[in-house]
Amino acid sequence: MNGTQSNPVVAFGDRRRAAPDENAIGDFSPWEVLRGIWARKQIILLAFAGFMTLAVFWLMTATPTYTVEARVLLSPRTGEISTFDVESAPLLPDNETLNSEIQVITSRPLIARLITDLGLAANPEFNPALRAPGFFGRIAVAFGLRDASPATDIEVVTDVVLSRLEVYQKLNSRVIALVFTSVDPRMAAIVPNRLAELYIAQQVEQRTGVNSEATRWLAEQIGELRIKVEQSEAAVEAFRAESGLFLTNGSTLPQQQLTELNTQLSQAEAERAVAQAKLGNARNLLASGNAVNTAAEVLQSPLIQNLRQKEVELRAQIAQMSETLLPTHPRMQESQANLADLEREVEKEVRKIIEALENEARVAGARVESLRSNLTRLQRRMGQLNQDEVKLRALQRDADTNRVLLESFLARYQQANARAEADTQASNARIVSRAQQPTAPTFPRTGPALGFAAIASLIFAFCVAFLIEVFQRGFRTGDQIERSTGMPFLGLVPEVHRGKSRPQPAGEIVHDPAGIYAESIRTLQGHVLLARVGDRRARTVLVTSSVSGEGKTTTVASLARAFAMGGFRAVIVDADMHMPAIPDVLGMSRQPGLADLLMGRAAFHHVIRKDPASQVHVIQAGTPISNPTAALASSQMQWVLTALQQTYDYVIIDSPAALAAADAQVLAKLADVTVLAVKWSYTDRKTVARALKLLAAASSRRVGLLLTQVDLQRYRRYSAEPLEEYPVRAPRRATAAR
Predict the structure, then answer these.
(1) Distance between alpha carbon 189 and the CA centroid of its chain, in Å?
(2) E strands, 309-358, where?
């Protein structure tokens, strides 16, 4: 070992940071974290093995469960008797309907019916009251806090069954999945199948109940309507008999009589008009002097027609005889006399016809008056009959309405009976997939579970290593020290494990000068030799730490012996008057020292002692004093150090921990250089930063950091330095000093 690091040598007095890592983020370097994680391979393996052991134990002790699914399709049937005559297609269930049916399937009454049907209350898997009490349960029974045989609570059993049951809608479908989990594969298949059957049976029962209720209601209404129809029809007939409004050919008798009278009156008036017209024509002919013989009634008389024919014949004879006979001829006169007789007969008949026309006109007038009188009387009667007919029509309407309603209810009753019988087993759901008894448990699955556990274990192990590494509070490499503090890294001191026959770690300098420990101390010695204060070399070295237990005293003793073995005159000044440890490290008895010298109770030749194992001189802490900080800050202390520098090449001071007392700050102002011992992978970084802040506030002198008690095997895992930089020898057992 040549006492150098892989990084460029940084002079003790150089306060600049080392070259930053390009991959580092602030004080955090991803590569260091990865190296740190890899350095904790044992932790990763232990965490992985522990997690896998728990996983295997859980798999071996876990109770296997079986999960089975049954499927129910929710859709109305188009071939049912009750809907075959409906022209429009039945409405398909929407999402709200599906969710409502899911709530029906998981309703407590239906689950309670399932429990009763399958006897699940007698199964300890579903009835906690039947399970054997555990250890704490037996204790509760023993102290009377719990019944030895608790009663079965159907609500508790229902809760257990519902916790094992999952009902949901299959994606983008009208299919409802019924998933059930049980430790018994047979029960896992039976429960969802039976639940689906009970759900469909409940639909059928509800539908049958609705039909039965409708049929019963229709029967009651029909009975009431029958009575109403009979009563209304009886009221119509009774009123008809009372009012005389009997129907004949669709109308009442008074209406028919009124119609007939109107007809007869019209005919009579027409006949009277004709008779009066005939009579008036004849009278007009007579009054005007015209021959009445031209009247139609006269011309149509057979007697007159016969007389006229005879008159024509007689006139023809007279005309013929007038050619041969004179008017005075007896035959002529006789014929004239006969003709006069015929004319008188015709005139007589005409008078009779006129009298007949007068009689006919009077009869027709009398008939008209009679018919008018009868019509007036019937019209007066019809006024009352009309009022009665209004009442009759109202009664008839009531009777007709009741009859129509009765006929409608009878038709609906017959249809309801027919459809109820036809659709007894019809429902809007059917089982499309029945649950089958599984042959292997669905949970836990050994293969996938082990694979998942292996992956989870690996992730868990790396997470544990990562968290340990990220939250590691101490420094592990020189790069971390220089990047975090900006102070130079002076090297590292390996941890020396002490055996029964081996000395203190400081003794390794004497007993094994070529060993790893001695080489590490000589590395620190090289930094001190190169340190300068202005134009001169540094001669006063203060060694302190942030907290106690970081090996500062051992470092002081080892560094002093290394200087003495190199031919330098070195003296150790134990300035830790609180807990002096130099005598224990060097194997010396406690004697007067620095405190006595500062207080004037002793001279130099009384307090300077020689190290039994080397040429190093030692000034112990001496007799305890009440205010060591004030004593160290006095001019007497400055005089002591000046005097020692005139005699010795190097004065190495051991002080209390910087955060334990203010002594280190006082001494840092007096010393040329300060070495801050930091325990490897132990001292918190914030603690080191606070100690550096205190030392920097007390003095502008340089401070270097030294890693102590380093585990070299682990250090190689964290550090990027070559392996041959710190060769590993068989460790020699020794206990690290304070």
Answers:
(1) 28
(2) none
DSSP annotation of 7 reads S
Q: How far is CA 511 from CA 300, 335, 401, 541, 569, in A?
A: 190, 216, 132, 24, 20
Rounded to whole angstroms, the Cα distance separating 723 from 364 reads 160
CA atoms within 13 A on the CB side of 312: 6
Mean pLDDT of 428-442: 87
Q: Taking the CB of residue 167, how many other CB atoms lie within 10 A of it?
A: 20
At 111-166, the pLDDT tens digits run 999 999 999 988 888 988 887 665 565 566 566 655 555 667 889 999 999 999 99
Alpha-carbon gap, residue 501 to 481, rounded angstroms: 35
pLDDT at site 140: 62
Cis peptide before 327 (omega within 30 of 0): no
Which pLDDT tens digit goes with each residue over 689-738?
999 999 888 877 678 999 999 888 777 766 655 434 444 443 443 333 34
- C-alpha separations of 47 from 56, 58, 402, 552 in Å: 14, 16, 91, 35
The tokens for 460 are 């868990």
CA proximity to 412, closest of 192, 278, 235, 225: 225
Closest alpha carbon to 265 in 359, 384, 366 = 366
Residue 326, helix vs strand vs coil: coil
Report helix, strand and coil shares of the chain as percent, to nearest 5. 60, 10, 30
pTM exceeding the 0.70 threshold for the entire prediction? no
CATH architecture for the domain at 478-725 = 3-Layer(aba) Sandwich (3.40)
Mean local confidence (pLDDT), 629-634 = 92
| pLDDT tens digits along 488-510 | 999 999 988 765 555 578 888 88
Q: What string of DSSP letters covers 18-42? A: PPPPTT-BTTB-HHHHHHHHHHTHH
Domain range summary for the chain, segments of one domain joined by +: 40-62+444-470, 251-422, 478-725
